[in-house]
Design a protein that fits this description.
Elements (H helix, E strand, L loop, with lengths): L1 H74 L3 H26 L10 E4 H9 L3 H6 L3 E6 L4 E4 L1 H17 L6 E9 L2 E9 L31 H11 L3 E7 L3 E7 L1
Helix pairs in contact: 1-2, 2-6, 3-5, 5-6
């Protein structure tokens, strides 16, 4: 008798628990949707604002550049005219980066046409423009690239990522210091490392350096940095299915590792 009661009790528990679990799952899904929806809407509005602001700023910037050129031809060069042109160039650089961020976040980016190309040659081409910078600043600049490294993707975007990392390395490196670039195969992956000596990155800044508009050294202004370079690099690498990470010893060195 007791066993029969237990058996019926067990069946009753199963009978009621299964629908209860289903209902709880549905309620959780609905609540999650309502909780996430404001965040998704805010993110969409932010992306739309970035895109709209970038396009809207292009027209007045073009007008400023044209009028500055006309005015300079009439009154001649001056330090004030040079300042106007320099600031207009800085703003133009910011607008281009804003539009780049907006384009990278457009739906369907992962379906872009990809080609097989020499990663060795692409990384090498990205390193060339920095040789003169290294010479001027007395920086030891070394490039070690493994031959016959091939990759399928967008070579222009990959070159852009390497250029961003090198620009950071030289910008935050030290006079008379060291910058190095390494490319090698690790199994089926291609790994590119960009290393520099210098101020490094603090432990507080390290987790946030890939955030948009985040700058480690907020005291440095007018250096052409807007806190967008690494965010753009991260978006490109994610669209490629790769990864990028940074490690550093504050006051000594920093290293970025790009894996494709």
């Amino acid at each position: 008798m007791e066993q029969e009661v237990r058996r019926h009790l067990g069946k009753a528990m199963i009978f009621f628990s299964v629908p209860l679990l289903v209902v709880m799952s549905l309620v959780s899904a609905v609540l999650a949707h309502f909780v996430a929806k404001p965040t998704e809407e805010a993110f969409k509005k932010q992306k739309q604002f970035v895109s709209d602001a970038g396009h809207e700023l292009k027209t007045p910037l073009s007008a400023i550049n044209v009028n500055a050129a006309v005015l300079e031809s009439e009154v001649g060069p001056s330090k004030y005219m040079d300042c106007i042109k320099a600031e207009a160039d800085r703003m133009d650089g910011l607008v281009r980066r804003l539009l780049d961020v907006a384009r990278l976040e457009e739906p369907g980016r992962e379906h872009e046409k990809k080609v097989r190309f020499s990663l060795t040659e692409t990384v090498y081409q990205a390193t060339l423009p920095f040789e003169s910078v290294a010479f001027e600043r007395n920086i030891r600049y070394s490039v070690q690239l493994q031959e016959n490294c091939w990759y399928t993707g967008d070579p222009q975007r990959i070159r852009q990522v390497v250029t961003i990392l090198l620009d950071n390395a030289f910008k935050y490196g030290e006079e008379g210091g060291e910058v190095s670039v390494r490319l090698r195969r690790e199994g089926r992956r291609m790994v590119t490392e960009v290393y520099n000596t210098g101020c490094g990155i603090s432990k507080q800044d390290l987790p946030r350096i890939f955030e948009r508009f985040y700058r480690c050294d907020r005291a440095r202004t007018g250096d052409g940095s807007y806190g967008l370079g690494l965010a753009i690099a991260l978006s490109i690498v994610r669209n490629c299915g790769g990864s990028i990470r940074a490690e550093s010893q504050e006051g000594a060195w920093a290293r970025f590792r790009l894996t494709l």
